[in-house]
Amino acid sequence: MLKTLIQNGRVIDPSQNIDRVTNLLIKEGRIAAIDVEPQADMKVIDATGKLVVPGLIDLHVQIREPGFEEDETIESAAYAALAGGFTSIAAISETNPPVDSAAAVTYLGRQASEADHCNVFPVACVSSGRQGEEMAEIGILHNAGAIAFSDGQRPVSNPELLRRALEYTLMFDRPVLNRPEMVELSRDGVMHDGSVSTVLGLAPMPAEAEDVMAARDIRICEATGGKLHLLAISCSGTVDILRRAKDRNVSVTASICAYQFALTDAAMRGFHTNLKLNPPLRSQEHIDACIAGLKDGTIDVIASGHAPRSSEKKMCAITEAPFGMVGLETALGLVSTHLVHAGHVDWPTVIRAMSTNVAKVLGVEKGTLQPGADADVTLIDPDAKWTVDTSNFRSKSFNSPFGGVELTGRAVETIVGGVTKFRYDGT
Amino acid sequence: METPGFLEPFVGRWTKRHLLDLESLTSDEITLLLDVAQAFKESTQDCRHKLPLLTGRTSVNLFFEDSTRTRTSFSLAARRLGADVIEFSASSSSLSKGETLLDTAKTIQSMCIDTLVCRHKAPGTPQMLAENLDVSVINAGDGPHEHPTQGLLDILTIRQHRGDLSGKTVAMVGDIAHSRTARSNIWGLQKLGAQVIVCGPSTLVSRRWEEYGVEVSHDLDAILPRCDVLNLLRIQFERQYTRPFPSVREYALLYAMDQKRMQRAKPDILIMAPGPINRGVEITPEVADGEHSVILHQVNNGLAVRMAAMWLLSAGRAS
Questions:
Q1: Which CATH number fits domain B5-147+301-316: 3.40.50.2300, 3.40.630.10, 3.40.366.10, 3.40.50.1370?
Q2: What is the protein's quaternary organization (chain B) (predicted)?
């Protein structure tokens, strides 16, 4: 019987309010116990100076296979996830054809299990063909293994469709992940609407394009009682609306992308296409409001917003470039550097937002180190200084604006189901 | 050809490789560009004479957007300096075959060119080319961002007619939101000590300009008596989904410079327009062709400014 003892690490498990230096025992792919003393039959992993946390879960990973394998395959995404410390990812369809059939869900699952890297939870489309008009076959997709429903980067613009979807998914107790964006207010936009966009002449994506839609989505959620998760919020107005909704116990949750904390819209002065992001980099006042929202629990989840795009797609004018950056391998480092080491939040808050809460939002039995749980564990060196080298990315794409940037803190070992799937060796 | 005497005082004073914007230039650099342009004008009979200072060099006009005067002006400027000129249009290029912008530019570069003059609808494209290529890049207009040679020729025109810019009040009127000319003028004028007003409908003139020390007005009649110069910008109908004002008629009523408004202006007001002008929209024909108008001077100055820029970026640059 294989036993592994992770020794002398700072074990942080928000699900049990644990935060102390101790030992964690893994047995037969499951968490066995904590506070166990080493014995002869145990394989020991020395975690001195490291954090030992429930495996990180990313609920916002754009999946490009099938259709755009030049950007990323399911295999490469899952591999990149491991390198970033994620033991599970929610795979949101940015594919062609979209994941709106049982066959597509099954295909996703099969590719993931063949890759055998991290857990991959399929998220299926809300609307048929991802067209935003008619509901997809949510019941059939659910039976095929979809754990949530989302049209990904494409917001559900039709309010009646959103209402129907939130009512209908209630039957299956599954969330709808919706990106709040009123496209009429942000179309052709390239960057945050502010004093920087005024000077650069780049078409604006105003904050109100997000918060107006968030308000609408939340009201529909409140009316139906469905489970709504707002994907990738970024504005002070949204945080404010969300906070008030949560005070009324509306069943809404929200996530933010890790890159949002790292840079302001002033970075757009370089006109670099890898910084063309949706949501865009915001101004400091929005970032401050989001940090406050993270601290008081208004924002539940930090995600990577992983959006791989092959380099030729970004080698063009900024107006024509697609949105997005690869995020899986830098998300934790950005959070560690810009939130923890910058003094804004502590590690338990981060682990809650990157694991415990994510499992709750997705309704999966993960995100905990309770005895009996799957032994998905991430070891983090909170003080490791490392320089982002895009050429070492496990992702197939390199579209990161953080190449050459030094970060502090990263995953050093990623354990899925009791098996070490990734170990950091300095590259 | 050896450097002629009138250019001697300017040799080696310019250090930058590219001309991408006016925002990042110092007042000394802007003044140098203007002085060289003025010297070219005075010593070549309004740029009529050829001065083969760039013989053996090649300039490429890489234009992804339509242009009449700017393109012609750059071609002529290069030819007056003895350089070879290659015209390159997006429609006739490999771009229509799926080549990336950067690959197209690199292909052109490998033909041993010295200067790339680029116009593109996307802000930042000339900067991207400058970062990735081994040639001098001149921005000939990048979307609504900047059009540095247009800004320089506007400022040169004001300087010729009204002297030192310091303390002058210059209003840019119209579609500021979509105007690269406005942005280049704002930075250039401010650096030389002028007070800049941006004026037009509130949907096209952002209050945010106040953060940059620019006065913002939506009432032309109110600011008119204070202005030494009016620069009337074209409404760029092609860049918007929902019209930013109800009708052209209403726009003209509120912002067109006509004879009646001229009565309220300073007696020596200078009327400018970067063109192409929409007669009857932002300016009436009587004003466009009237005694205060220097619109055609602007065009002629464009040639001098572009000769100055090309010479400073290559032969005149500090080695």
A1: 3.40.50.1370
A2: Heterododecamer (2C3:3R2) of six catalytic PyrB chains organized as two trimers (C3), and six regulatory PyrI chains organized as three dimers (R2).
